[in-house]
Design a protein that fits this description.
The chain is 38% helix and 22% strand. A hairpin with a 3-residue loop joins strand 7 and strand 8.
Length: 258
């Protein structure tokens, strides 16, 4: 009997239960994989605001990662909220010790969906210089993409793709540009892979609000990579996972912005 794949989740908590590690573990269970954890920050937040964040000591984050690898055969890594630049740098340095590094999915969490900052210091610099070279796939939404590329807010798909190409040039292997913050009846995501043609994923935009969809998507991608699916197939399956969750929330009002 095949062993259940294990993914390492490196992220922060969310006391509201709407996002963060709570959502990551929930997603992993539904996708049929096990989880190991490295907690980067403890937060107090509601569904409406971030009240406080308390970063974990960087050395302890590193020790959690080392312990997770010693205890398990890690098939993929999902990185979410990092909290501080020091934590981002030590996460990168610790992962570099493992060769080959498993697939790494980076959800560049910069601001909470509950409207509050979740990072301190020059997180953009730490992501670009330390984490991108290790990253198999980065999954920014449109505001995050603009911040990472030091560009203006995006209004057209062509601009999003050009900004995505800039991130590829900065060092990541692939980028999934999420279109949840755009407008229109169809939500379009763009997958850019180094030295390959771009691929688009289109789905009907549902009039529904749900926090933590970015966490869910990135964790589902990591889970499907851990199960052996190719990157494009892993993304398709993860997008369906998120869409099915949103359909269940379709009695709510507003829009999910992933």
């Amino acid at each position: 009997m095949a062993l259940t794949p294990v993914i390492l989740i490196i992220a922060g908590t969310d006391s509201s239960g709407g996002a963060g590690i709570t959502r990551d573990i929930e997603t992993a269970v539904l996708e049929g994989v096990s989880t190991a954890l490295a907690v980067t920050s403890v937060t107090a937040q509601t569904h409406d605001e971030v009240l406080h964040t308390e970063p974990v000591a960087p050395w302890l984050v590193a020790q959690q990662i080392v312990s997770a690898f010693e205890a398990n055969s890690i098939s993929a890594v999902k990185i979410g909220m990092l909290g501080t630049t020091e934590i981002a740098k030590i996460v990168a340095a610790t992962l570099k010790k493992y060769s080959p590094v498993p697939p790494v999915i980076l959800d560049p969490v910069l601001t909470a969906s509950s409207k509050g900052p979740l990072t301190r210091g020059n997180m953009r610099g730490a992501i670009v210089h330390d984490l991108l070279p290790l990253t198999t796939l980065i999954t920014p939404n449109l505001p995050e993409l603009a911040e990472l590329t030091l560009a203006a807010a995006i209004t057209h798909d062509s601009e999003a793709i050009e900004q995505g190409k800039k991130l590829i040039r900065l060092g990541t292997h692939a980028i999934l540009i999420k279109g949840g913050h755009a407008t229109g009846d169809t939500a379009i995501d763009h997958l850019l892979v180094k030295n390959q043609a771009s691929v688009s994923f289109s789905q009907k935009r549902l009039a529904v609000t749900m926090r933590g969809t970015g966490c869910t998507l990135s964790t589902a991608i990591a889970a499907n990579l851990a199960k052996g699916f190719a990157l494009d197939k892993a993304i398709k399956k993860a997008k369906k996972h998120v869409f099915d969750l949103l359909k269940e929330k379709n009695r709510c009002y507003g829009r999910s912005q992933i």
